[in-house]
Structures are given as C-alpha cells and as structure tokens.
Amino acid sequence: MDSYKQKPLAFLSFGIPSIAWLLLFFMLPLAIIFMYSFGENVSVVEVKTTWTLDNYARIFQPEIMTLLWRTLWIALLATVICIVVGLPVALVIATAAPWAKAWLLLLIMLPFWTNLLIRTYSLLNILGTRGRLNEFLGWLWHKANDFLVFIGAGDLGLLGTKFVAFKFLGTPGGVVLGIVYVSLPFAILPIYSSLERMDTSYLEASMDLGAGQLQTFFRILVPLALPGILTAFLITFIPALGQFLTPELLGRGQVDMVANVIQRQFKGANDWPFGSALSLMLLYITFILLALRAFADAARSRRESRAL
Amino acid sequence: MAMDKVKRHRNKRKPFEYSRKWSLRSVFLMATVFLYVPIVVLILFSFNNSRRGGNVIWKGFTTKYYDKAFHNEDLMLAFGNTLTIAVIATIVSVILGTFTAILLWRFRFPLKPLFEGLVSLPIVIPEICMGVSLALFFTKMGWLGNTSDVWPFNLVNIIIAHITFCFPFAAMVIRTRLQSFNREMEEAALDLGATEFQVFKDILLPHLKPGLVAGALLSFTLSLDDFIVTFFTSGPNTVTFPVKIYSMVRFSVTPEINAASTVLILLTLVLTFFALRVQRNSDVVE
Q1: Which residues contact A183 (CB under 8 A, 6 or more apart)?
Q2: CB-nearest partner of B56 from A36, A130, A263
C-alpha cells in the first residue's frame, strides 16, 4: 500500500470523484433532512429550521408509539421466522454433495433477483380470500374432514362445520408472510456461508463424546453458526423495519408500518419536518443495531484471544 | 457378528450429513415451493383470458394481454425509462466503484476508516431514508424532473439517486477482485518503462475485468429492482416500470400487469444466466 503523500496526483484522481459524489448526493441530502427534522412548516412548501424539538416529541404520541411498536413486532416476527426456516435450508445446502451446492444455492437465490414489487404483487394474487392459498387450505380441510369421517370421528366436528377462508390481506399475518417471502433468500445466504466454513470435527467430537443429534445441533452447531445467524438477523431486520411495499399492498392500509406514515408526510400530508424526524428515527435505530453488532464482535474476539 | 457390527456402524448417521435427513429435506422443499409458487402462478395467470378479477378463476389461454402490454404506451415508456436509467447508472457506478476500490486498496491516507464507513453507509441505510433525503434534496435544488427537459435529461435525478446506492455495491465487488492482483506485475511494468497510465490500462484493468462485469451486473439488477428511491425521486412525468406497475396495481389487478411482470422476470433470468456464465469463465481462467 502506498501512502497518499507518495503519489498525490494519483491519489486525488482516484479519490475526488467518489468522495465528491458521496458528499454531494448522500451526506448533503441527509444533512437536509437532519435540518428539516428540527424545523417548522411556515407555509405549504416552506420549512424553517428553528431547532424545535416538537417533531421528535410527536414521535412519543400514543398513535405513533403504537405504530412503532407494530413495526417492531412485525419486523421481529418476520425475521425470526426467516431464521428458523433459513437455518435448516442453509444446512441442507451446506452439507449437500459438492456438485449440488451451487445449484441448490441458485434455486434459493433466483427469486431474490426478481423485482421486489413483482414478488409482492405475486403474493397479492395468492393471498386473497378466494386466492390460491385459501383454495389449497380448503382442499386440505376437506381431505382432513374426509379422513375424520373415515375413522368415525366425523360427528365430533373437530375442524368446525365448514372451511372458513383465512383473511391474509389487510391483516398483520399477511404482512409478516409478505416480509418473510421477500427476505427469506437474503437471510439464508449469511447462515449458509458461516456453515460452509464450519469445522465439522467439532460435531464429530461431540457425537463421539456421547451427545445425541439434537444435543449436538443445539449446543455445538447453532453456537458455531451464531455469527452468520446474527448477520442474517441484521440484514433481514433492518430492511424489514423500513418496509413500505408489503404493508402498503398486502396490509391494504390497515396494517401501517413506519415507512407508510413517512411516505404520507411527503406525499399527501405535506408535513416534511415530521416525516424527516421519523425517517431519521429509523436511521438511528439502524446505527444502534450496527453498533451493538460491532460490540458483540469485539467482545467475541476478545474472549477468543483470551481463550487461546 | 462382525459383519453385523460393521453394517450398524455404517448405518449410523455421521454428524453433518444433514442434507440426508428427510425432516430437513422437507423443510428445504417447502421453502422452495413457498418461494416459487407465487411467481409461477403470476406467470400462468398472465395467460388467463379474463378481464376483471382475472387472477381468481382460470378462463382459458390467451396471449392478448402481452399484446395489450406491448401496446400500452405509458407502460412501454416506463419500461424504456427503467432500462435507460439502469444502463447509465450502471456505467457510472462501475467507473466510480472502480475508483473507490482502487483508492481503498492502494492508498494509506488519514481518516481512511471514516471513508470506508461512508462508502458502506448507502448499503446499510434504510431505503426509505435515502428516498426521502434525496427527494428533499432535489426539491431544494429545484431539480425535479422537468417536463420541458429533453429525454433522457428529465431522468437525471433518478439516475443520480440510483448511482448513489449502486456504486458502493460495485466498489465492494471490485475491491474483492483487486485483492488477488499481484503488485509485482505492476512494479515489473514500471521498471520496464511503462507509465502509470499504461500500467492501469494494460495490466490492472484486464485483471479487474471479471470484477467489473460482476459489479456491472449487480448495479444493473439493483437499479432495475429499485422501487422506493425511484418512487420518491421521480416526478409525475418520469415514471419507471416498477412505479408504473405500482400505480396500476393500486388501480386494479389485471392480467396485463402479470404479462408485463413476466417480461421483466424473463429479463432478470437472462441477466442472471449471463452473470453465472461470466463467473464460471473467470473461475476456469483461474
């Protein structure tokens, strides 16, 4: 590596374009919403920065707190489902025959390259009360009911008298399902890469010392895959918090998340200062999560170096 | 007896053969079905011969909605805009990404960790923050896709926005590729009288090529995929394909949307295929 002093001209010609771009089109816009978040509307399109804290105070209103709470638990639930489903999927790929690995990975990642809007729209077709999923569930219900009649338990009405279609659209359940759908491939990738690198002799040692399959799984494999699982958590949870399309299309305006309310401040309500404060709120949460991750990494490497 | 023991030992499953377990295999299968069924249904129903509520009941095969989509002028304009934006944003992103990658790989300079953090920030920041901040920035600067501007200059603000979130990804990919570059080649060339620029053009760039292609494909897909940032930075007359589809979906769900989506899915498939080819070729060279 050269010092920038040795070849100042080369350094500047490689450095200036990207630094200038980031300052002008990334930092300056962020600075603008930072200023706006301390501002007040003086007329319809004019905002004056008065360094008021009102916009941040408004976040603590009951309805915004409810909104934040809903955003948090929907994102959290979707992330946990992604990881619980993603871990076995990643395990299958990581332990498959070498020639099959690339294909299985491609199979999982291919939908991820499809446009996010199109994937959300494709779910819209499936999730309606008369959609494919309810059709399938109805079919399952009839089969199960036939089976109950067959074994003579038909009169007990264990499954209810008739199939009631599930309501997915406009319910939190549908939104969670939508977020899981769009982020599952992304959650699988980091878990897979941490499993790929794993030293399998630990697992063999555990089995040799008399632990069962399940014990080995939960006490050896999961802790070893933890860095990957943490990464999967972050890269699923952070975008999930800012999800706009899924609640907008699948929530039908009844399951708003933060992003929907932010969008309304800019297109409609015209309350830019409050919208800026809300979106910076999301940014601060992101920073806090990333900082926690960095602390956890530092603590881990310290522990490991002490153990050696 | 001995045979029996060997057999039992062989049958005992070794750890880490999880891909052989039926329970895990079925989770994998269900996840795959879950990921693919909605897309397959979407494609199938683009051929459904039904005007309203076309996505509920199958009413026979037709390709007329493809015809309709291709003759929908607004939709085709949006499609053209999306491709134009993606191509320009990709070219600029690869150039900026290369510069950034070389800068980070080659030089020691003060505040380097800060710069690294700044470059990776657009990757981690929630999309909506970026959309909102750029929207306000363009409003403040008065750069709102003017109707009077000649194409493609009316798309400039969307292109700028796309470059801002694409080039850090391109830089990341290209930087990975740079790590395998042998700097002795550079020194040898300089000793033999090559200029700095010749070294860059004839030695560094050819080595970087697979990284550049990978970075370009990544930028292109990211640009094609983006909805949020475009949604906030586009004006009423500068609509892109996803934004157009979004407004159509809000209005009503028709097989025409399915047909248009299928075309975009095919385009993505072709791109992925090329990306894999490039990757495999560069692996073979190595």
Answers
A1: A78, A79, A82, A236, A239, A240
A2: A130
Residue of B nearest to A248 (CA): B250
Q: Which of A3, A122, A286 is the closest to B38 by Cβ?
A: A122
Q: Which CATH class is domain B70-285?
A: mainly alpha
Identify the residue among A121, A192, A199 best suited for mutation to test binding to B, counting B beta carbons within 10 A and taking the highest.
Answer: A121
- Residue A41 is given by DSSP the state E
Sign for the CA dihedral angle at A286, A289, A293, A295 comes to positive
Q: Residue A105's closest CA among A115, A92, A114?
A: A92
Express each pLDDT in A187-200 by its tens digit.
Answer: 999 999 888 888 77
Element of type H or E holding A48: strand A47-49
Question: What is the DSSP code (8-state) at residue A2?
Answer: E
CB contacts < 8 A (A, B): 245
Q: Which helix H or strand E contains B195, and what residues bound it? A: none
CB hemisphere CA count around A153 (13 angstroms): 8
CA torsion through residues A141, A144, A148, A149, sign: positive
All residues of chain A having their beta carbon less than 8 Å from the beta carbon of residue B15 are: 200, 203-204, 206-207, 213, 216
- By CB atoms closer than 10 A (0-12, 13-18, 19+), residue A53 is exposed
CATH level 3 topology of A50-129+167-307: MetI-like fold (1.10.3720)
Please, which residues 22-51 of chain B have a Cβ atom closer than 8 Å to chain A? 23-25, 27-28, 31-32, 34-39, 41-42, 45
Q: Do A118 and B245 touch (CB under 8 A)?
A: yes
Q: Would you kindly state where each structural domain of chain B is located, as residue ranges?
A: 70-285
A33: amino acid identity, one letter: I
What average pLDDT does this structure show over B50-67?
A: 74
- Note the pLDDT tens digit of each residue in A54-88: 889 888 889 999 999 999 999 999 999 999 999 99
Write the CA distances from A160 to A135, A156, B85, B190, integer angstroms.
Answer: 17, 9, 54, 82
Beta bridge partners of A48: A40
CA angle A172, A175, A176 (to 5 degrees): 85
Q: In chain A, which among 116-145 make CB contacts under 8 A with chain B? A: 116-119, 121-126, 128, 130-132
Q: Which two tokens stand for residue A65?
A: 């707190």
Is residue B90 a contact partner of residue B173, using CB atoms and an 8 Å limit? no
Domain boundaries, chain A: 50-129+167-307
pLDDT per residue over B257-266, tens digit each?
889 899 989 9
In angstroms, rounded to a whole number, what is the distance separating the alpha carbons of residues A154 and B279?
58
